[in-house]
Amino acid sequence: MSIGFDEAVHGATLPLQVTSPGVCNTCHGSGAKPGTSPRRCPRCDGTGFVASNQGAFSFSEPCRDCRGTGQLIDDPCPECGGQGITNQTRTINVRIPSGVRDGAKLRLSGKGTPGTRGGPAGDLFVTVHVGKHTLFGRKGDDLTLTVPITYAEAALGATIRVPTLDGSVALKVPPGTPSGRTMRVRGRGVATKRGTGDLLVTVEVAVPQKLSHEEREALEKYASTVAADPRPQITVAVERGASHG
Asked: Which residues fall within 8 angstroms of residue 57, CB to CB, at 6 or more apart?
Protein backbone atom coordinates (compact mmCIF):
# COMPACT_ATOMS: atom_id res chain seq x y z
CA MET A 1 0.00 0.00 0.00
CA SER A 2 1.50 3.32 -1.11
CA ILE A 3 0.85 6.36 1.09
CA GLY A 4 2.04 9.96 1.15
CA PHE A 5 4.78 11.35 3.40
CA ASP A 6 2.30 13.50 5.37
CA GLU A 7 -0.05 10.53 5.83
CA ALA A 8 2.81 8.47 7.26
CA VAL A 9 3.77 11.22 9.71
CA HIS A 10 0.29 12.19 10.91
CA GLY A 11 -1.54 8.88 10.41
CA ALA A 12 -4.67 8.29 8.35
CA THR A 13 -7.47 5.85 7.57
CA LEU A 14 -7.35 4.89 3.90
CA PRO A 15 -9.38 2.50 1.72
CA LEU A 16 -7.61 -0.51 0.23
CA GLN A 17 -9.15 -2.56 -2.57
CA VAL A 18 -8.25 -6.22 -2.32
CA THR A 19 -9.06 -9.10 -4.66
CA SER A 20 -8.79 -12.29 -2.60
CA PRO A 21 -10.80 -15.33 -1.41
CA GLY A 22 -13.86 -14.40 0.64
CA VAL A 23 -16.94 -16.05 2.14
CA CYS A 24 -19.28 -17.27 -0.60
CA ASN A 25 -22.30 -14.96 -0.80
CA THR A 26 -24.55 -17.78 -2.05
CA CYS A 27 -24.06 -20.36 0.70
CA HIS A 28 -22.60 -17.97 3.30
CA GLY A 29 -19.59 -20.21 3.77
CA SER A 30 -21.37 -23.52 4.45
CA GLY A 31 -20.47 -24.99 1.05
CA ALA A 32 -23.98 -26.49 0.68
CA LYS A 33 -26.53 -25.57 -1.95
CA PRO A 34 -29.04 -22.99 -0.65
CA GLY A 35 -31.94 -24.77 1.03
CA THR A 36 -29.74 -27.69 2.12
CA SER A 37 -27.29 -28.21 4.95
CA PRO A 38 -24.14 -30.25 5.45
CA ARG A 39 -24.60 -33.45 7.44
CA ARG A 40 -22.43 -34.96 10.10
CA CYS A 41 -19.87 -37.41 8.79
CA PRO A 42 -20.84 -40.88 10.05
CA ARG A 43 -17.30 -42.24 9.80
CA CYS A 44 -15.72 -39.78 12.27
CA ASP A 45 -18.98 -38.72 13.97
CA GLY A 46 -18.27 -35.10 13.10
CA THR A 47 -14.86 -34.88 14.76
CA GLY A 48 -12.87 -34.84 11.53
CA PHE A 49 -10.46 -37.47 12.86
CA VAL A 50 -10.48 -41.24 13.08
CA ALA A 51 -8.42 -43.47 15.37
CA SER A 52 -5.99 -45.92 13.87
CA ASN A 53 -4.06 -48.70 15.58
CA GLN A 54 -0.69 -50.03 14.50
CA GLY A 55 0.55 -52.67 16.86
CA ALA A 56 1.01 -51.17 20.30
CA PHE A 57 0.55 -47.63 19.01
CA SER A 58 -2.71 -45.73 18.54
CA PHE A 59 -2.96 -42.39 16.78
CA SER A 60 -5.50 -40.15 15.07
CA GLU A 61 -5.52 -39.08 11.45
CA PRO A 62 -7.84 -36.87 9.36
CA CYS A 63 -10.99 -38.59 8.21
CA ARG A 64 -10.74 -39.51 4.54
CA ASP A 65 -14.47 -39.30 3.90
CA CYS A 66 -14.93 -35.67 5.04
CA ARG A 67 -11.28 -34.64 4.65
CA GLY A 68 -11.09 -33.59 8.26
CA THR A 69 -14.06 -31.20 8.17
CA GLY A 70 -16.45 -33.44 10.12
CA GLN A 71 -19.21 -32.76 7.56
CA LEU A 72 -20.40 -34.16 4.27
CA ILE A 73 -22.08 -32.08 1.58
CA ASP A 74 -24.51 -33.98 -0.60
CA ASP A 75 -25.56 -30.95 -2.70
CA PRO A 76 -22.56 -28.59 -3.15
CA CYS A 77 -23.16 -24.87 -3.68
CA PRO A 78 -23.07 -24.13 -7.42
CA GLU A 79 -21.20 -20.87 -6.81
CA CYS A 80 -18.22 -22.16 -4.82
CA GLY A 81 -18.36 -25.89 -5.56
CA GLY A 82 -18.72 -26.79 -1.88
CA GLN A 83 -15.67 -24.86 -0.66
CA GLY A 84 -17.60 -22.00 0.94
CA ILE A 85 -15.10 -19.53 -0.54
CA THR A 86 -15.08 -17.50 -3.76
CA ASN A 87 -12.64 -14.96 -5.19
CA GLN A 88 -13.97 -11.46 -4.45
CA THR A 89 -13.01 -7.81 -4.70
CA ARG A 90 -13.62 -5.90 -1.49
CA THR A 91 -12.65 -2.57 0.04
CA ILE A 92 -11.02 -2.55 3.47
CA ASN A 93 -10.36 0.56 5.55
CA VAL A 94 -6.77 0.47 6.79
CA ARG A 95 -5.80 2.61 9.79
CA ILE A 96 -2.30 3.96 9.29
CA PRO A 97 -0.73 4.78 12.69
CA SER A 98 1.12 8.08 12.98
CA GLY A 99 4.85 7.76 12.48
CA VAL A 100 4.69 4.57 10.38
CA ARG A 101 7.93 3.90 8.52
CA ASP A 102 8.56 2.81 4.96
CA GLY A 103 8.42 -0.98 4.68
CA ALA A 104 6.38 -1.45 7.87
CA LYS A 105 3.90 -4.34 7.97
CA LEU A 106 0.43 -3.74 9.41
CA ARG A 107 -1.62 -6.71 10.64
CA LEU A 108 -5.40 -6.63 10.11
CA SER A 109 -6.92 -9.40 12.22
CA GLY A 110 -9.67 -11.44 10.57
CA LYS A 111 -9.29 -9.74 7.17
CA GLY A 112 -7.44 -12.57 5.46
CA THR A 113 -8.68 -15.69 3.69
CA PRO A 114 -11.75 -17.32 5.34
CA GLY A 115 -11.46 -20.83 6.69
CA THR A 116 -13.01 -23.71 4.79
CA ARG A 117 -16.81 -24.12 5.22
CA GLY A 118 -17.35 -21.30 7.64
CA GLY A 119 -14.06 -21.55 9.49
CA PRO A 120 -12.51 -18.40 11.00
CA ALA A 121 -10.63 -16.08 8.65
CA GLY A 122 -6.89 -15.50 8.82
CA ASP A 123 -5.17 -12.13 8.95
CA LEU A 124 -4.21 -9.65 6.26
CA PHE A 125 -0.69 -8.19 6.29
CA VAL A 126 -0.28 -4.84 4.56
CA THR A 127 3.21 -3.63 3.63
CA VAL A 128 3.39 0.17 3.64
CA HIS A 129 5.45 2.12 1.10
CA VAL A 130 5.93 5.79 2.02
CA GLY A 131 6.40 8.33 -0.76
CA LYS A 132 9.08 11.03 -0.82
CA HIS A 133 8.53 14.64 0.27
CA THR A 134 9.67 17.57 -1.85
CA LEU A 135 11.37 19.29 1.11
CA PHE A 136 11.68 16.93 4.07
CA GLY A 137 13.56 13.73 4.65
CA ARG A 138 13.31 11.37 7.61
CA LYS A 139 15.88 9.82 9.92
CA GLY A 140 14.16 7.67 12.52
CA ASP A 141 11.67 9.95 14.27
CA ASP A 142 13.55 13.09 13.18
CA LEU A 143 12.72 15.13 10.10
CA THR A 144 15.57 16.53 8.00
CA LEU A 145 15.57 19.73 5.96
CA THR A 146 18.23 21.54 3.92
CA VAL A 147 17.92 25.35 3.81
CA PRO A 148 20.06 27.65 1.62
CA ILE A 149 21.37 30.84 3.26
CA THR A 150 23.40 33.76 1.95
CA TYR A 151 27.04 34.34 2.80
CA ALA A 152 26.05 37.47 4.72
CA GLU A 153 23.57 35.48 6.83
CA ALA A 154 26.22 32.86 7.57
CA ALA A 155 28.91 35.41 8.44
CA LEU A 156 26.83 37.98 10.32
CA GLY A 157 24.13 35.71 11.72
CA ALA A 158 20.41 35.95 11.07
CA THR A 159 17.01 34.71 12.13
CA ILE A 160 15.21 32.93 9.31
CA ARG A 161 11.90 31.12 9.08
CA VAL A 162 11.95 27.50 8.03
CA PRO A 163 8.94 25.31 7.16
CA THR A 164 7.63 22.46 9.27
CA LEU A 165 4.99 19.90 8.35
CA ASP A 166 2.37 21.93 10.21
CA GLY A 167 3.53 25.51 9.66
CA SER A 168 6.87 27.27 10.17
CA VAL A 169 9.32 28.14 12.93
CA ALA A 170 11.99 30.80 13.51
CA LEU A 171 15.57 29.49 13.36
CA LYS A 172 18.51 31.51 14.71
CA VAL A 173 21.66 31.22 12.60
CA PRO A 174 24.65 32.21 14.79
CA PRO A 175 27.37 34.48 13.33
CA GLY A 176 30.14 32.51 11.66
CA THR A 177 27.97 29.49 10.85
CA PRO A 178 29.80 27.22 8.35
CA SER A 179 28.06 25.76 5.36
CA GLY A 180 26.79 22.25 6.13
CA ARG A 181 26.12 22.86 9.82
CA THR A 182 23.03 21.07 11.18
CA MET A 183 20.86 22.69 13.84
CA ARG A 184 18.16 20.99 15.88
CA VAL A 185 14.62 22.31 16.39
CA ARG A 186 13.19 20.20 19.19
CA GLY A 187 9.71 18.70 19.06
CA ARG A 188 9.11 19.40 15.37
CA GLY A 189 9.71 15.88 14.10
CA VAL A 190 7.54 12.77 13.89
CA ALA A 191 5.18 12.01 16.79
CA THR A 192 4.96 8.30 17.73
CA LYS A 193 4.16 6.28 20.84
CA ARG A 194 7.81 6.61 21.82
CA GLY A 195 7.62 10.42 21.78
CA THR A 196 8.20 13.22 19.26
CA GLY A 197 11.35 13.61 17.20
CA ASP A 198 13.12 16.81 16.20
CA LEU A 199 13.59 18.82 13.01
CA LEU A 200 17.22 18.73 11.83
CA VAL A 201 17.97 21.77 9.68
CA THR A 202 21.17 21.77 7.60
CA VAL A 203 22.16 25.19 6.25
CA GLU A 204 24.12 25.52 3.04
CA VAL A 205 25.66 28.75 1.83
CA ALA A 206 24.19 29.53 -1.59
CA VAL A 207 26.78 30.71 -4.13
CA PRO A 208 25.21 32.98 -6.78
CA GLN A 209 25.68 31.84 -10.36
CA LYS A 210 25.62 35.39 -11.72
CA LEU A 211 26.60 38.72 -10.16
CA SER A 212 25.51 42.22 -11.01
CA HIS A 213 28.14 44.92 -11.50
CA GLU A 214 27.43 46.33 -8.03
CA GLU A 215 27.59 42.90 -6.40
CA ARG A 216 30.92 42.11 -8.06
CA GLU A 217 32.41 45.42 -6.96
CA ALA A 218 31.22 44.84 -3.40
CA LEU A 219 32.71 41.35 -3.29
CA GLU A 220 36.02 42.47 -4.79
CA LYS A 221 36.24 45.24 -2.21
CA TYR A 222 35.52 42.74 0.56
CA ALA A 223 38.11 40.30 -0.80
CA SER A 224 40.77 43.02 -0.79
CA THR A 225 40.15 43.69 2.90
CA VAL A 226 40.36 40.06 4.05
CA ALA A 227 43.80 39.41 5.50
CA ALA A 228 43.28 36.00 7.13
CA ASP A 229 44.16 32.91 5.12
CA PRO A 230 41.21 30.45 5.31
CA ARG A 231 43.44 27.48 4.41
CA PRO A 232 46.82 27.91 6.16
CA GLN A 233 47.68 24.20 6.21
CA ILE A 234 47.02 23.88 2.50
CA THR A 235 49.14 26.96 1.80
CA VAL A 236 52.05 25.55 3.79
CA ALA A 237 51.80 22.22 1.95
CA VAL A 238 51.79 23.99 -1.41
CA GLU A 239 54.84 26.08 -0.49
CA ARG A 240 56.74 22.98 0.66
CA GLY A 241 55.89 21.22 -2.56
CA ALA A 242 57.08 24.19 -4.59
CA SER A 243 60.40 24.33 -2.72
CA HIS A 244 60.98 20.61 -3.27
CA GLY A 245 60.17 21.01 -6.96
From this structure: none
